[in-house]
Amino acid sequence: MRKKKTIGVIGCGNMGSILVKGLLESGLYPASRIYISDTQKKKLKYFKRAGLQVVDNRRLSENADVVIIAVKPDAVEEVVSEIKEFLTPSKVLVSIAAGISTARIEKILLKKSVPVIRVMPNLNVRVRAGLLPYCPGRYADGCEGLVEKLLAPLGIVFKLSEEKFDAVTAISGSGPGFIFYIAENIKRICKKKKFTEQQSAIITSYLIYGSGKMLAETKLSPDRLKEMVSSPGGTTVAGLKVFEEKNFPEILKESIEKAENRSKELSRA
């Protein structure tokens, strides 16, 4: 019987914690085979009680077959430099840091032929409905299956060329923030219309949830679904007219372009 891989996650902030919880809840990896580390020890108490291996970065990298770097982009170079002596071609290094290319990480590793894979998960992995585009680095041929199996319990995993990563970071990575901003304002309007807090929360959450479910399950285009709720001379058409008058498509396009440009800035930093 093949020995199960050991997984290590460096950084237990928002996304790191979500990834660890998703791996644990998937049942694919027992707690004893998941290593975690973070500079803020209070973040690790829950995971220690759950039976995970709480260690430092160096010991984690020495013991884990797959090392996931879930730190802020400006900390990646320091972390990779710290652990590179423990990384070998038989291990896989996964980075979820926004704006950090596989080539940049490989440069820090010097001439070591370590498989590096870049992943851009979004916040929705928390409810196992995330988008997880990934791209393999120079030495990562043959590692795709491992990463897809590792991340599959968290949502939709798909391979993407690295040249599209700034765009996908802006759309799927930042996208939940844009949707939640819309939700925040819908809820605020509900409350101004004298709906209760509970009613406002239900209306807002199920409006977004149900619409997303329609898109995912009916396979109909957004245009077609919009038409289904837009009776001529009706309330939806009246509301959509305001979106057009205020040039909402251009606002959304500019928001995504700003996010994409920021991702490019991080890449160059």
What can you see in these coordinates?
The protein has 269 residues and is α/β, with parallel strands linked by helices. It has two domains: 7-161, NAD(P)-binding Rossmann-like Domain (Rossmann fold, 3-Layer(aba) Sandwich), CATH 3.40.50.720; 175-268, ProC C-terminal domain-like (ProC C-terminal domain-like fold). It contains twelve helices and eight strands. It has an eight-stranded mixed beta sheet, sandwiched between helices. Strand 1 (7-10), helix 1 and strand 2 form a beta-alpha-beta unit. Helix 7 (165-173) crosses helix 12 and helix 8 packs across helix 9. It is elongated. 32% of the residues are buried.
Salient structural properties:
269 residues, alpha/beta, Rossmann fold, ProC C-terminal domain-like fold, 12 helices, elongated
Structural class: alpha/beta
Q: Largest sheet, if any?
A: 8 strands, mixed
Which shape, going by the Cα principal axes? elongated
The name CATH uses for the topology of the largest domain is Rossmann fold
Strand elements, count: 8
SSE topology:
Layout: E1 7-10, H1 14-26, E2 34-37, H2 45-49, E3 53-54, H3 57-63, E4 66-69, H4 76-83, E5 92-95, H5 102-108, E6 116-119, E7 130-136, H6 144-151, E8 155-159, H7 165-173, H8 175-192, H9 197-218, H10 222-228, H11 235-245, H12 248-268
Parallel strand pairs: 1-2, 1-4, 2-3, 4-5, 5-6, 7-8
Antiparallel strand pairs: 6-7
Helix pairs in contact: 7-12, 8-9
